[in-house]
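S.,

Sequence below, as promised.
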Amino acid sequence: MPILVNKLTPTTFSSRISGESKIENNKEYNANRSAVLWSTLSALAAAGAIVAGVSLVKGRTTALHNLFDAKKLSIEKGTGLLKDVNGTPVSDIFEYNTKAGKYLRKYKDGTLILSGKNIDKDGKPLSDNIDYYAVKYNIQDGKLKEITSERRNKGRIIQNAKDILTIDEKKKIIEAKIEALSRELVENQRKIIKIRLELTLLNKKYKRVQDEINKIIKDKKPSDKVEYSDELKGYLLEVKNIVNEIKKGTNDYNLKLNDIKAIAKTLKEQRLVLDKLNKKTGTV
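The prediction came back faster than expected:
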């Protein structure tokens, strides 16, 4: 049964277990979480070979190294493009076997677009019951824009996706969030000012009605029985309604104040993120 993982935002990682099954213990949950994280790290590690042109495995020779060497191919430093002896970008599929399984790497115009274990040229598993993983790289205008990965381990499939954004793209996203939060903050401040004004008017109204009640009963002695005339009953009912409105207004005021504090906190955090991005260049 597949575990579907939400597409990630540029700065956060989140996953959601499919509602078809319930995680019954922390051990199973941690295993699933580790599998999902593996998917992300595996994809990003492979992406590093594209972006930076680093060696596939530092410090040791692999079957893929031997395969590239036999065909006189090399990964160009700085671009990460796979090129032949004449410097021409390679479009080809490379398969090699190890004790762990059958591996595949697919290149188009020198750029890695698919890698995985026990998969075919389209990223599909070689059989229905074999464990596998496939990492696909979405390249747009010569830049890595998205990584998607899928892994089956002991019958369970984990899917994952990661956007790869430039600093400028991330800044635009954060700037849009800051603008929206700023508008929301101003709107909530306007609302809380309105609530405060309404509470002020209600308190004045309460005092005015209470004064009218006091006028009616001011000449009464403590031992006298107060007669509840229609006029007095009306004032008492009005006071009760005003008190209820004040209670509601006070509650609304406190809720809105909490909203303002939360928005202000998030706004501050987003501005700090933007400050850090302004100090960087390239892709994160």
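The beta strands are 74-75, 82-83, 92-98, 101-108, 111-117, 132-140, 143-153, 156-163.

Coffee later?
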